[in-house]
Amino acid sequence: MGAKKINLAVLLSGGGRTLQNIIDRVGEGKLDAKVVVVISSREDAYGLVRAKKAGIETHVVPHKLYKGDDAGSFSQEINKILSGYPIDLIVMAGFMHLFKADERYKGRVMNIHPALIPSFCGKGCYGHHVHQAVLNYGAKVSGVTVHFADDVYDHGPIILQAAVAVKDDDTPDTLAARVFAEECKLYPRAIQLFAEGRLEIKGRRVYIK
Ligand code: GAR
Question: What is the CATH number of domain 6-208?
Answer without folding.
Answer: 3.40.50.170
